[in-house]
Design a protein that fits this description.
The structure is a homodimer. By secondary structure, chain A is mostly helical. The first copy, chain A, is built from 17 helices and no strands. Chain A has a single domain, classed as Orthogonal Bundle (Farnesyl Diphosphate Synthase). The radius of gyration of chain A is 20 Å and the shape is globular. Chains A and B meet through helix 5, helix 7 and helix 8 of A and helix 5, helix 7 and helix 8 of B.
Chain lengths: 342, 342
């Protein structure tokens, strides 16, 4: 039941020493303080609403996982300069812009009532401040002056947008395939993890092989991370902990637990999925019934198995690097991303 | 009554030979055909909704004014390469992304019912396809490889977003000053005109003075263009021609005709403006009454005078350049931008 071979002592059964972000957070703490300074400085604008709204989301207690990957990768390859600081802030700005744009409420979809930026300031402000942060990220990259970094992050941004649109068109499409789903999460999530990690090797001017390994590490970690996120959204344990579940269900998103349950279901079950996801006709008790069907077919466990495959691939990607404290901390982050599902 | 000295024969009184885009359009026709090829090629994506939605807005019969400025400026300075083609497409993509994001309907503002992309495909798709086009613009710039161009257009993008947010916070703010309004339109409109024009000199590696002159030309033209746009939105002539007027009024936007009418109004008139713009309590007949107040105080004419000042400054910016066919065509575009108000 251990998550991976290299993390056997920190597997889910070792409840007193579960994998966490703590080691990596400690290793990059000084750098992250500088990243936060850059973030605060660069989200400034004479238009006061911009730092207000951006501050709401930037300061909302996110894990800063993506910029942390840039800092971690730079540390892993022994980078001694300072370019990774501003570029890590770029990565966070792109992520934040994506979050702001993700939370825009559709005209036809005014049901969600979370305390997102758009709920407080409206759709338009969220969109425009997202645009500002996105532009500011490119300004920072231009100031850094590397066309290679600009290529990595503009390519990533285009793929992210493609992935988000792809997700939009698979939403409520009960026939969405597992391949399409994997393509969506690779585009919308994993590509930024990959770019964030790769940049650490780029600023250090490390060999192409290290760049590729870090890019692959980020990509595999990102897919694992998103798979686990999608499982957690149906998790009974999360529910027991008082966390919100069912967001994806209520939005009719086609995530792997649903795709696998639909594929394994009989005619009656498929009719259920078509009604609640395809037609968005959801009644009380439907989420619980969806969870029961997932339990019946073991689709959360199967989805987690898939996540573990990607986590193991991420581990292999790190084999190229010397077994430093940075590498161990990054390995623990891989394990954490999967372990949090238990 | 002529628009500018240098355009006396094409002033509004010469009804048989009014200034138009035609001369410039003809001069850059071959280049523009290539720009359109780039646009079609670069908005492609395996996610079919992206070219569908982007095509809707890209093909919606816009004047392609901004990319035309890049082509015109390149022609003006005698550029003989081909970099201006893709960069003109970048400018159009950034503009299109802005349009898509502009049209996102606010949660609190579901009244507008125009046939915009967001009305057809929803807010989320409009936002995400805008993000895609924006990212694609940066990919094209990276492929071009000029950090200078990247700086010009990332700076412009950040200022545009700032201007859009600034406009948002002045909307319904009846105390908005003329200075704040000019800052908004310079940021949201003129900066992209300026960048588009400047790039023509940058690709041709012309002296700094020509770059600055073209940047200033674009900026002045952009302010004049937006001032006239804002006048047209209250124009009785436009109404007589069957065009929609009152969009800004219905959205509570603080444009110069309103700002000047509020400043010149007595207590009763100010109460009217506070109700219809500040509180957005609009009844039938209010738009007509607003137009009557503008006529009474001559605020459309005053706004047009301001536009003419900027147009004249744009003319002066072109004095630096040899009196070629390109320069004459660009001068006619300046005159057209103001003349269309008559």
């Amino acid at each position: 039941m251990s998550v991976t071979a290299s993390a056997s002592q920190s597997g889910p059964e070792a409840a007193d020493r579960r994998p966490s972000f703590d080691a990596l957070r400690a290793l990059v703490a000084d750098d992250m303080a500088k990243v936060n300074e850059t973030i605060i400085r660069e989200m400034h604008s004479p238009v006061a609403l911009i730092p207000q709204l951006a501050g709401h989301i930037v300061a909302s207690g996110g894990k800063r996982l993506r910029p942390m990957l840039t800092l971690a990768a730079a540390g892993l390859v022994g980078y001694e300069g300072s370019r990774h600081i501003d570029l890590a802030a770029c990565v966070e700005f792109i992520h934040t812009a994506t979050l702001l744009h993700d939370d825009v409420v559709d005209e036809s979809n005014l049901r969600r009532g979370k305390d997102t930026a758009n709920a407080v300031w409206g759709n338009q402000a969220s969109v425009l401040v997202g645009d500002f942060l996105f532009s500011r990220a490119f300004q920072l990259m231009v100031a850094d002056g590397s066309l290679k970094v600009l290529k990595i992050l503009s390519d990533a941004s285009a793929v992210i947008a493609e992935g988000e649109v792809h997700q939009l068109v698979t939403t409520n499409d009960i026939e969405t395939t597992e391949a399409a789903y994997l393509q969506v999460i690779e585009s919308k999530t994993a590509v930024l993890f990959a770019a964030a990690s790769q940049i650490g090797a780029v600023v250090a001017e490390r060999p192409e092989s290290e760049e590729r390994a870090l890019e692959s590490f980020g990509r595999n970690l990102g897919v694992a991370f998103q798979l686990v996120d999608d499982v957690l959204d149906y998790s009974a344990q999360q529910e027991a902990l008082g966390k919100t579940v069912g967001d994806d269900f209520r939005e009719g998103k086609m995530t792997l637990p649903v795709i696998l349950a639909y594929a394994a279901g009989d005619a009656e079950e498929r009719a259920f999925w078509s009604r609640v996801i395809g037609d968005m006709e959801q009644d009380e008790g439907d989420l619980a019934f969806a969870q029961a069907l997932m339990a019946k077919h073991g689709t959360l466990a199967k989805s987690l198995n898939r996540a573990r495959d990607y986590a193991e691939a991420a581990h292999r990607d790190l084999d190229l690097f010397a077994p430093t404290a940075h590498r161990r901390a990054m390995e623990e982050v891989i394990d954490f991303c999967v372990d949090r599902a238990y």
